[in-house]
């Protein structure tokens, strides 16, 4: 049976970017050869001491190292393997120290003597290492292949020029950006195909090799994503033009990035609606059960509890047709059901307690949605954008940030409304409390304005700061 040894030298092991490449390649490989014996070693989990250069493995105890650690087993697996997959992220132009420590500890495989083999001086080997097949899998942070030059050379030497194929993925950090999954699926598909081809023919087709050499996304997009994604404390990343070293005036720079943002907005904008009603209108509709409850809870619970429950169920039932029921709409049904249940159990509230409870509950529902990074307003405003924004990480991040602010704003506003209600109560002006709802309409207007102003503001603020 064919034995495969996968040596993953990333300190992140199976959670890293290198592992994603290994997994996809092996998925393809195993579709053709499903019964190979595979040892997948996450080297960072192993106890492998540094070689101390004592040469005991060459003299006093030939073939045996003085250290007693996990390398005993690993060396056996290495000697037995028909195919070794050397996998490592690029660290300072080379393999990681984790993998390098393993490589250095393979010294006992060699004998100390120097002989000439195929025109080159080398050490004779105790087992036939040079008959093994080898594949190199790596990824790096930069967007250019020359970064791998030194490491590739080094593996050529280590394997005695026996690297069958290499998968060297530039911009590898993008592999772990969930939002880009759709955009880099083409690379994953080719990687799997490479696995199938290697299992079938012992090499990749030329086309496959060429495609695997392509950048995951256009370089400009990558630089923009990479520089903005760090969010380093107290530091301002270079703008795209600065990063690309484009020599243009700061004013032009400002305009150019703003117009990039404008173009993106236009590119992603769409006029879609849910069942013929746009997202923002649905948001207003979702408030109707709450308004009914605020008006009548504690006075007429038929309307304040049961009416609100009925209306929220009707909204959910209508929205179910389009499978676009939002978290707010679901939580509204849940909340009014709980109020209904309490009523059945004979627990009811005065209108003051009921109203305040409503404000507290709605503020909580809205606030909690931000913790989950699924701000509630996004459920409604997303219909203004095409689904592609999820692939544009910068735009998507700004979209989520905008909605987090808006959702927290709404959450805070409900608390303020609760406060105003208590104030009116203290002043014996409860009859004026419906006026508080005017705030909701003002807030809806503000939401519309803010969601188009804020993304532009972040971008121009960023450019402004980097121009200083
Ligand atoms: C210490 C260190 C050194 C690195 N050196 C390089 C480098 O020389 N060139 C490069 O393009 N990327 C470099 N990177 C980026 C890594 O190759 C990149 O983060 C890779 O995706 C990590 O893969 P992993 O998730 O499998 O560990 C370095 C990263 C670290 C932490």
Give a verbal description of the structure.
It is a single chain. With 468 residues, the chain is an alpha/beta fold. The chain has 2 domains: 3-217, Flavodoxin domain (Rossmann fold); 279-467, no CATH class. It is built from 16 helices and 7 strands. The protein has helices spanning 17-32, 71-80, 97-104, 149-158, 185-201, 206-212, 219-229, 240-243, 250-268, 279-296, 301-320, 327-344, 351-371, 376-381, 393-426, 438-467, and strands at residues 3-8, 37-42, 83-89, 115-117, 120-122, 133-139, 163-169. It has a 5-stranded parallel sheet, with helices on both faces. α1 links the parallel β1 and β2. α12 packs antiparallel against α13 and α13 (351-371) packs antiparallel against α15. The protein is elongated and about 100 Å long. It starts with a strand and ends with a helix. Bound molecules: flavin mononucleotide (FMN).
């Amino acid at each position: 049976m064919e034995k495969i040894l996968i040596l993953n030298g990333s300190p992140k092991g199976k959670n890293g970017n290198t592992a994603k490449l290994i997994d996809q390649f092996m998925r393809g490989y195993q579709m053709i050869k499903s019964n190979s014996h595979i040892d997948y070693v996450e080297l960072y989990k192993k106890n492998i001491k540094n070689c101390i250069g004592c040469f005991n493995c060459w003299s006093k105890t030939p073939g045996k190292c003085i250290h007693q650690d996990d390398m005993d087993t690993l060396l056996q697996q290495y000697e037995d393997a028909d195919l070794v997959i050397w996998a490592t992220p690029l660290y300072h132009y080379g393999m990681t120290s984790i993998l390098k420590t393993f490589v250095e500890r393979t010294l006992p495989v060699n004998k100390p003597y120097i002989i000439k083999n195929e025109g080159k001086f080398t050490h004779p080997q105790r087992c036939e290492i040079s008959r093994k097949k080898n594949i190199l899998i790596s990824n790096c942070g930069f967007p250019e292949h020359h970064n791998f030059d030194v490491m590739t050379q080094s593996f050529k030497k280590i394997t005695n020029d026996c690297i069958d194929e290499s998968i060297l993925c530039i911009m590898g950090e993008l592999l772990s950006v969930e939002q880009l999954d759709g955009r880099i699926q083409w690379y994953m598909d080719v990687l799997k195909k490479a696995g199938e081809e290697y299992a079938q023919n012992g090499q990749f087709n030329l086309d496959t090799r060429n495609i695997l050499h392509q950048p995951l996304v256009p370089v400009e997009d990558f630089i923009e994503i990479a520089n903005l994604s760090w969010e380093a404390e107290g530091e301002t990343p270079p703008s795209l033009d600065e990063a690309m070293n484009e020599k243009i005036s700061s004013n032009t720079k400002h305009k150019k990035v703003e117009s990039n943002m404008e173009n993106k907005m236009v590119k992603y904008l769409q006029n879609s609606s849910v069942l013929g009603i746009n997202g923002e209108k649905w948001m207003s509709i979702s408030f109707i059960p709450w308004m009914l409850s605020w008006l009548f809870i504690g006075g007429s619970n038929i309307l304040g509890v049961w009416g609100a429950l009925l209306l929220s169920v009707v909204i959910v039932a209508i929205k179910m047709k389009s499978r676009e029921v939002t978290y707010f709409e679901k939580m509204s049904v849940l909340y009014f059901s709980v109020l209904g249940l309490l009523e059945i159990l004979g627990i009811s509230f005065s209108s003051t307690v009921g109203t305040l409870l409503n404000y507290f509950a709605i503020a909580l529902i809205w606030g909690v949605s931000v913790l989950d990074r699924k701000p509630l307003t996004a459920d409604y405003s997303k219909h203004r954008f095409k689904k592609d924004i999820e692939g544009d990480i910068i735009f998507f991040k700004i979209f989520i940030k905008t909605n987090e602010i808006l959702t927290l704003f709404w959450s805070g506003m409900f608390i303020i409304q609760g406060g105003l209600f208590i104030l009116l109560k203290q002043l014996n002006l409860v009859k004026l409390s419906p006026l508080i709802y005017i705030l909701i309409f003002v807030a809806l207007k503000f939401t519309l304005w803010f969601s188009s102003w804020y993304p532009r503001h972040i971008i121009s603020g960023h450019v402004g700061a980097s121009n200083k």
